[in-house]
Amino acid sequence: MNESKQRVIAYIDGSNLYFGMVDAGLKYCKWLDVKKLMESFLDSGQALVAVKFFTSRLTHDEAKEARQATYLDALELAGVDLIFGSYHSKTIECYQCNHKWVMPTEKMTDVNLATHLLMDAHLDAYDVAFVVSGDTDFTPCVEAVNESFASKSVVMLFPPLRENETLEDEARSSQLITKEKLIECQFPMKLVGKDGIELQKPTGW
């Protein structure tokens, strides 16, 4: 890598990106090559040195678990670092009808992303951080990087329908991930994974 180029690390809030696409009617973009997507935001003076994808493995639904596992294998094959939180069961009760049901709740993903963003700044691992999320909870850590590391920049890349004025004001700059970019940055229908095992775009994606 040319040492004169700015080092970029991308930090992706997998859940925020996923539901942004789904809510925008872009379910057909879920087979997304996030490394290629991040590369599309680089300028000529930058080089992508790592992509960190923060997510949790699904539980309670074997079909969804299998689709997610295939996608995570594809991301690993592309050189994306996977950092996992976890799902915990939460009981929800309707106070009108007293019906109860169990809902899985994602834990630790936000904390993991914020920790890596600050830790990597402290270790001087990047010059520019791309943060893919529209979650206001990241405002304090973006602010901390700005205040403590004047030579570094945090760029917010907002998923569809996830633009956030608070984060936009705190970051050095921001952009919206457009439908066109998502369509352009899809994995091929089939990939050859580890040990020659074929990875295929899940049915329904």
What keywords describe this structure?
205 residues, alpha/beta, six-stranded parallel β-sheet, two-stranded antiparallel ribbon, 7 helices, 33% helix, 29% strand
Description:
This protein is α/β, with parallel strands linked by helices and 205 residues long. It is 33% helix and 29% strand. It is built from seven helices and ten strands. The longest helix has 16 residues, at 62-77. A six-stranded parallel sheet has the order 3-2-1-6-7-8, sandwiched between helices. It is globular and about 45 Å long.
Describe the structure concisely for a colleague.
With 205 residues, the chain is of the alpha/beta class.
Please specify the SSE layout and strand pairing.
Elements: E1 6-13, H1 14-23, H2 34-39, E2 46-55, H3 62-77, E3 81-84, E4 86-93, E5 100-107, H4 109-122, E6 128-132, H5 139-148, E7 153-158, H6 165-170, E8 173-176, H7 179-184, E9 190-192, E10 198-200
Helix pairs in contact: 4-5
Secondary structure tally, helices: 7
Morphology: globular
Largest sheet: 6 strands, parallel
Helices and strands, in N-to-C order? EHHEHEEEHEHEHEHEE
Mean pLDDT: 91
Q: Which runs of at least 5 residues are low in confidence (pLDDT < 50)?
A: none
Helix content: 25-40%
Tally of strands: 10
